[in-house]
Amino acid sequence: MTAFALDDPFDRGSGLPRPGNVLRAAADSIPPSSLVVLAIFSVQLGAGFAKELFAALPPSAVVFLRIAAGALLMGAFVRPRLKGLAWRDWAVGIAFGVTLAVMNLSFYEALSRLPMGIAVAIEFLGPLGVAVAASRRRIDLLWVGLAGAGVVLLAPWGESATVSWAGIGFAMVAGVCWAAYILLSSAAGQRFPGTSGLTFAMIVSAVVIAPVGVTTGGADLLQPELLLIGLGVGLLSSVIPYSLELQALRRMPKHVFGILMSLEPAVAAMIGLLLLGEILHVQQWAAIVCIVAASLGSTRKSKQ
Question: Where does the signal peptide begin and end (predicted)?
Answer without folding.
Answer: none
